[in-house]
Prior knowledge:
The chain is mostly beta strands. Helix content is 0%, strand content 42%. The protein has a single domain, classed as Jelly Rolls (Sandwich), CATH 2.60.120. It has a four-stranded antiparallel beta sheet, with no helix packed on it. Strands 6, 9, 10 and 12 form a four-stranded antiparallel beta sheet that branches.
Amino acid sequence: MHGDFLGFIHRQEEGNTFDGTAILGRYRSPDLSFGDTGIRKHMQKVILNYKPESAIDADLIVRYDNEASDSARPAPYPLDSSQIAAQFGNAVFSTASSAAQFVFGGPSQPLVRQSIEGSGFTVALRIHDGGETAPYSLKGFQLEYQVGARR
């Protein structure tokens, strides 16, 4: 909210849409080679740290080898917000919405451990948001992999 020189108060934004239109969110990491583009990496797990304000509708997408069309393209992994702590005003104790189940006393910034599949010489993570969820911030991620053969 803000005021103007004529004494009027204006509300700038309200809700999770732009006047009824979804606000699509996109994130893409750089292509990560882990120091050597000549060694294949067999990806095992992504540990994702994010801070949501409520249930979210987003997918984690893993792409290999600079998104080459002939590289592995696993299906998107939905980001799970079921183990996120209920925050005042967003959830009622001992009830659950159909979108997510809130946990009393759970972590507010969860570390989500997502098993992933595929391998490549480089890997990039993308997050695609459905557009009508409450705000959240991506704090960081960690990738676990095994070293494969050299090119």
